[in-house]
């Protein structure tokens, strides 16, 4: 059972999402919060698998909520998926840096929302393709590598770099294995070792690193 925490200051949106998620086998909404501060309390109480968190909220916004969830060892199993409207790319990018596992736009189709919850629950990257390109083009630097990024790249083996680059393209471990002609277990090992070396909380942070470091080009 995938346990979900809904965090949004709009009751109508929360009720709509709850009705959709609760009607699906294998998914359960365990709590709702109207702001980030309340979300932290409920997250610690219910320990959900997924927290669907609105970017813009009163009291504590989605970025700070994401940051505090990511920093809390007791919430290590909670994957934050931020909810946004079109045009809020800057907030989304900061949320990914803060530790979000991915993002969705609020006008997502019902079947896509259900799929997204399952994707996030199994640990894969969740980046809405409709705004990913604009996000990357606008907010990823293409100049000289900052010292920390350059040093971090040197820590990765060639295979680990290849794996991270493919993660940034949205490939699963199985797809990475096919592309590199290795076993899925070996692909998973390369990804996990890269995450450890880069201190990445999840695959979404590997995507951010890949573009910021220049390992993958925006174009």
UniProtKB/TrEMBL annotation:
<keyword id="KW-0238">DNA-binding</keyword>
<keyword id="KW-0805">Transcription regulation</keyword>
<dbReference type="InterPro" id="IPR039420">
    <property type="entry name" value="WalR-like"/>
</dbReference>
<dbReference type="InterPro" id="IPR000792">
    <property type="entry name" value="Tscrpt_reg_LuxR_C"/>
</dbReference>
<feature type="modified residue" description="4-aspartylphosphate">
    <location>
        <position position="54"/>
    </location>
</feature>
<feature type="domain" description="HTH luxR-type">
    <location>
        <begin position="149"/>
        <end position="214"/>
    </location>
</feature>
<dbReference type="Pfam" id="PF00196">
    <property type="entry name" value="GerE"/>
</dbReference>
<protein>
    <submittedName>
        <fullName>Response regulator</fullName>
    </submittedName>
</protein>
<dbReference type="InterPro" id="IPR001789">
    <property type="entry name" value="Sig_transdc_resp-reg_receiver"/>
</dbReference>
<keyword id="KW-0597">Phosphoprotein</keyword>
<dbReference type="InterPro" id="IPR058245">
    <property type="entry name" value="NreC/VraR/RcsB-like_REC"/>
</dbReference>
<dbReference type="InterPro" id="IPR011006">
    <property type="entry name" value="CheY-like_superfamily"/>
</dbReference>
<dbReference type="InterPro" id="IPR016032">
    <property type="entry name" value="Sig_transdc_resp-reg_C-effctor"/>
</dbReference>
<feature type="domain" description="Response regulatory">
    <location>
        <begin position="3"/>
        <end position="121"/>
    </location>
</feature>
<keyword id="KW-0804">Transcription</keyword>
<dbReference type="Pfam" id="PF00072">
    <property type="entry name" value="Response_reg"/>
</dbReference>
């Amino acid at each position: 059972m995938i346990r979900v925490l809904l965090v949004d200051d709009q009751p109508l949106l929360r009720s709509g999402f709850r009705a959709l998620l609760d009607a699906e086998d294998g998914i359960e909404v365990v709590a709702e919060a109207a702001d980030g501060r309340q979300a932290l309390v409920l997250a610690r109480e219910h320990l959900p698998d997924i927290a669907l968190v609105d970017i813009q909220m009163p009291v504590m916004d989605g970025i700070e909520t994401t940051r505090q969830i990511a920093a809390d060892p007791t919430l290590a199993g909670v994957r934050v998926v931020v909810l946004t409207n079109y045009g809020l790319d800057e907030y989304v990018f900061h949320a990914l840096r803060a530790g979000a596992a991915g993002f969705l736009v609020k006008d997502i189709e019902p079947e896509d929302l259900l799929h997204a919850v399952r994707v996030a629950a199994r640990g894969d990257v969740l980046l809405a393709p409709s705004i990913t390109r604009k996000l990357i083009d606008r907010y990823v630097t293409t100049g000289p590598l900052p010292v920390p990024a350059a040093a971090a790249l040197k820590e990765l083996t060639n295979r680990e770099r290849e794996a991270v680059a493919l993660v940034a393209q949205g490939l699963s471990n199985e797809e990475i294995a096919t592309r590199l002609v290795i076993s899925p277990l070996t692909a998973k090992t390369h990804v996990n070792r890269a995450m450890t070396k880069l201190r990445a909380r999840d695959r979404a942070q590997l995507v951010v690193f890949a573009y910021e470091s220049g390992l993958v080009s925006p174009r």
